[in-house]
Amino acid sequence: MLDKKMEHAICGGTFSDLFQPYWAPQNVAVDDDADQTKLSLDASSGCGFESKKKYLFGLASMQIKLVEGDSAGTVTAFYMSSDGPNHDELDFEFLGNVSGEPYLVQTNVYVNGTGNREQRHTLWFDPTQDFHTYSLFWNRRCVLFLVDGIPIRAFVSKEVSGIPYPRSQPMGVRASVWNADDWATQGGRVKTDWSHAPFVSTFRSFQIDACDLLEDGSGTEVVTRCTESGQFWWDKPEFDGLDRHRNRQLRRVQRKHLVYDYCRDKLRFSDQLPRECVA
């Protein structure tokens, strides 16, 4: 069902329809005719773009071809975020690698300004050789991180146990390329080699099928409108969670490709694991 929605997203469009640069526009190369936008990182700056609207629940996806060759120290990000210190955020972060080593995909969830919910996965393909589709699905009950339609992570609401969940802050859809050689590759041991710059990631096939913030910018109205039960396709019962097929896919990915899970890091959380890990 979700696959069909992704294939027929009603709000697909060009970069210029949906997005605008928010950081270093000189490093953002937009070609709407070719349906490609290139983000470049050089020694002077990274760059990024953001959606013209903010959204509360729905589906956002784009195809990305990651930096080729020695990309150590770099991060390419596709994420959703609200504003302010107590923001909510859903992250795909692609951590650059030394040539010949696999890319790592780090996902994270921030709620009310608190993150520290990282998972890291390898991929079952080389993400630098072709485009692949990365998607964020978000409703009142779960957040799904999907790669080519396959779930690699599910963050399920446990609000009944008093655990915060991102449900009230509209978020913009964003992407960026930036230097993070203090942590991104082998914990910061491998630094960015600027002789390989510029580092370029390419984006295309932008789709957003989500409840958007009203033009008047009223936060109260958008929360009310976007949370009315049953109004949107993502509120239907079949999207309450993962079906049997999706659960099998997720378990397979976690078994074969999960290399770090904060819920298993008892050294980091020596006193007590985060509440959502044990609820």
From TrEMBL:
One of its GO terms (cellular component) is apoplast. Its EC number is 2.4.1.207. Glycans are attached at N97. The active site is at E89 (nucleophile), E93 (proton donor). The keyword Nucleotidyltransferase does not apply. Keywords: Apoplast, Cell wall, Cell wall biogenesis/degradation, Disulfide bond, Glycoprotein, Glycosidase, Hydrolase, Secreted, Signal, Transferase. Contains at least one intrachain disulfide bond essential for its enzymatic activity. One of its GO terms (biological process) is xyloglucan metabolic process. One of its GO terms (molecular function) is hydrolase activity, hydrolyzing O-glycosyl compounds. The keyword Disulfide bond applies. It comes from the Eukaryota. Pfam families: Glyco_hydro_16 (PF00722), XET_C (PF06955). It is found in: Secreted, Cell wall; Secreted, Extracellular space, Apoplast. Residues 1-203 form the GH16 domain. Coiled coil: none annotated. Its main location: secreted. It is an enzyme of class 2 (transferase). Catalyzes xyloglucan endohydrolysis (XEH) and/or endotransglycosylation (XET). Cleaves and religates xyloglucan polymers, an essential constituent of the primary cell wall, and thereby participates in cell wall construction of growing tissues. This is Xyloglucan endotransglucosylase/hydrolase. It comes from Punica granatum (Pomegranate).
